[in-house]
C-alpha cells in the first residue's frame, strides 16, 4: 500500500508540466547524496492500515517537500504541489483505491531552512492525507 501511494503521488507530480519546469526530480524517502537541486522528496509521516472493520482500509499522511538553495523556488514549488495534489484523484495500484474522488487532501504547510557547510537549504511543501481501501 505504501509503495502504491508514493508511486501515485510521484506520477501525479511528474505529469504536471508547470512543476516539472521547476524540478523534474522526485524521490521517495530520500534523495541521492549527489541529487541536483531543486528536488522533491516524499516521506510517510504517519498512518497505515486502519484495521477498524473487516475490510482493509488505510489512512496515511505523506510529506511532500521541495528542497532548494533558493527559498522562492522552494515556495513556488510548494504552491504548485498543493495545486496538483489537493483534492486529487490519485491512481493507486496493487489492489488499493481511494475512498472517493479527491481522496488526497492538503493538511499542513511545511516551511523551514537549515545551514549545512555554509550553504542554506530551504524546505517547502505540505502534508497530505490519503485515505482508501482494498479494491475488492
Notes on the structure:
By secondary structure, this protein is α+β, with helices and mostly antiparallel strands. It has three helices and six strands, in the order ααβββαβββ. It has helices spanning about 1-15, 15-20, 70-85; strands at about 25-30, 40-50, 55-70, 95-100, 105-115, 120-135. Strands 1, 2, 3, 4, 5 and 6 form a six-stranded mixed β-sheet that branches. The longest helix has 15 residues, at about 70-85. The mean pLDDT is about 90.
For the terminal residues, how far apart are their CA atoms? 14 Å
- The beta-strand count equals 6
The low-confidence parts are none
Overall geometric form? elongated
Could you tell me the mean pLDDT?
A: 91
Order of helices and strands: HHEEEHEEE
The major β-sheet equals: 6 strands, mixed
Instruction: Provide a count of the helices.
Output: 3
The helix content, as a percent range, equals 25-40%
Strand portion: 35-45%
Radius of gyration from the alpha-carbon trace, in angstroms: 15 Å
Q: What structural category characterises the helix and strand content?
A: alpha+beta
Amino acid at each position: 500500500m505504501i509503495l502504491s501511494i508514493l508511486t501515485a503521488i510521484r506520477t501525479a507530480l511528474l505529469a504536471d508540466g508547470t512543476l516539472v519546469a521547476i524540478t523534474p526530480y522526485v524521490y521517495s524517502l530520500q534523495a541521492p547524496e549527489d541529487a541536483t537541486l531543486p528536488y522533491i522528496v516524499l516521506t510517510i509521516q504517519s498512518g497505515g492500515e486502519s484495521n477498524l472493520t473487516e475490510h482493509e482500509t488505510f489512512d496515511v499522511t505523506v510529506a511532500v517537500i521541495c528542497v532548494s538553495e533558493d527559498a522562492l523556488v522552494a515556495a513556488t514549488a510548494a504552491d504548485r504541489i498543493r495545486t496538483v495534489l489537493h483534492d486529487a484523484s490519485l491512481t493507486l495500484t496493487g489492489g488499493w483505491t481511494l475512498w472517493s474522488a479527491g481522496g488526497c487532501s492538503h493538511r499542513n504547510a511545511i516551511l523551514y531552512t537549515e545551514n549545512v557547510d555554509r550553504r542554506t537549504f530551504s524546505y517547502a511543501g505540505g502534508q497530505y492525507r490519503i485515505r482508501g481501501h482494498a479494491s475488492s
